[in-house]
Write a structure and sequence with these properties.
Number of helices: 5
Shape: globular
Helix content: 40-55%
CATH class: Alpha Beta
Order of helices and strands: HEHEHEHHE
Radius of gyration: 17 Å
Strand content: 5-15%
Strand order of the largest sheet: 1-2-3-4
Largest sheet: 4 strands, parallel
């Protein structure tokens, strides 16, 4: 569902019954200096990364079993902003991580955790031509401590940990190959 659309999110949550886990991976990222990014792109970033998790909790928490959990995705930019990558991306990811901590306190005993991915080889990089993308991945892999780019499987395994281990709450699992250190 489009969690960034409050009315749509509310309508969906009114239709579904109780559930064990909710996961928000929403992101509509835009790259470039903030001064030059068009307003509609900023609005899309806010809708997915900020309003999505807010709407998920506001409209969905009544459907979540007390033994359940919420998992929100942030990103490496929260720890390591890059020039030209829109300061808003840093702020939104850092905000998601703050929301994880605040919601863990507010919604206890419902567990709330986050996943902070680094560069992961997905269709999200399709804006680059194949040669540029392969060169970028190859160059970055030599700089990461893990010496490779992340895969969707890496994120899935981290998500399964966060969803099934019933003890962690209020934390963020960093799945970035050491990206914040390299």
């Amino acid at each position: 569902m489009d969690l960034g659309d409050a009315a749509a999110a509310q309508a969906i949550f009114e239709q579904i019954g109780a559930d064990d886990h909710f996961v928000s991976t929403a992101a509509d990222l835009t790259y470039g200096p903030l001064a030059t990014v068009e307003r509609p792109a900023i609005e899309r970033m806010l809708a997915g990364k900020f309003w999505g998790p807010v709407n998920l909790v506001q409209f969905g928490v009544q459907n979540l079993r007390a033994s359940g959990s919420i998992l929100l995705f942030s990103g490496l930019a929260a720890d390591r902003p890059a020039a030209g990558s829109v300061g808003l991306e840093w702020a939104l990811n850092a905000g998601v991580e703050g929301l994880v901590r605040a919601l863990a306190v507010e919604l206890a005993p419902v567990r709330v955790n986050g996943i902070s991915p680094g560069v992961v080889e997905t269709e999200g990089w399709a804006f680059m031509d194949e040669g540029s993308r392969k060169g970028f991945f190859s160059d970055l892999a030599t700089k990461l401590l893990a010496r490779r780019i992340g895969t969707p499987r890496d994120l899935a395994e981290a998500a399964l940990f966060a969803l099934t281990n019933r003890y962690p709450t209020g934390g963020v699992v960093h799945v970035h190959g050491g990206g914040s250190l390299s």
